[in-house]
Amino acid sequence: MLNILWDFDGTLFDTYPALVEGFVALSQRDLDREEVLRWLKVDSKTAFKHFGIDEDRRAEYKQLDIKYSKNSKPFDHLEDVLAAVDNNIIVTHRDRESANYLLGKYSLTKYFTEVVSVEEQGFNRKPHPSSYEFVLKRYDIDLVVGDRELDLLPARQLGIKTVAFQNRNIDADFHLDSYADFIPLVLK
């Protein structure tokens, strides 16, 4: 039995272009998109602070994200990996409706046992481990896959192996640039 906990944005789906566009629209300034991306990859709270955007505008940002994310696509070879796993569970800051929309659009819903939306379900934002602890009460998680340090920190705190996706600058048990390498490297 193999159970994997997944992050959503930047891990399952290439949503960063949409997240960046939503952030630039929220700022109402002509921000350098590469710089915005660098800060968003740390976390959105840090990006808000860096660019001087009030945290009270987070709900507005979420609406812009939903608007721009509708055309986001899953990463190549992801479906092959999902099909090889017994239970795939998502823990995300994204709202459940938006995550479910994208999963459904690409016929990936069938691969996921559960979607945990951190804020909707009242958990502290990652890297706080509360959402991961909730999942661990229900499933024996073998692996956590994420693209940012904040996705992997709670897993390491809880003694779970980690996979860093498209980010070699964070500590992880495995580093992958493509899901084509997942099965031969991680599931060998």
Helices and strands in order, then pairings?
Blueprint (H helix, E strand, L loop, with lengths): L2 E4 L9 H12 L5 H10 L1 H7 L7 H12 L8 H6 L3 E6 L3 H10 L6 E6 L12 H9 L4 E4 L2 H9 L3 E5 L8 E3 L5 H5 L2
Parallel strand pairs: 1-2, 1-4, 2-3, 4-5, 5-6
Helix pairs in contact: 1-2, 1-4, 2-3
> Main beta sheet, described?
6 strands, parallel
Number of strands: 6
Euclidean distance between termini CA atoms = 14 Å
Number of helices: 9
**Mean pLDDT, rounded to whole units?**
95
How much of the sequence lies in strands comes to 5-15%
Provide the low-confidence segments as ranges. none
Q: From the 3D coordinates, which CATH architecture of the largest domain would you assign?
A: 3-Layer(aba) Sandwich
CATH fold assignment of the largest domain: Rossmann fold
CATH class of the largest domain: Alpha Beta
Q: Roughly how many Å is the radius of gyration?
A: 16 Å
Shape label = globular
What number of structural domains do the residues give? 2
Order of helices and strands: EHHHHHEHEHEHEEH
Helix content: 40-55%
Supply the key terms.
6 strands; 43% helix; six-stranded parallel beta sheet; 2 domains; Rossmann fold
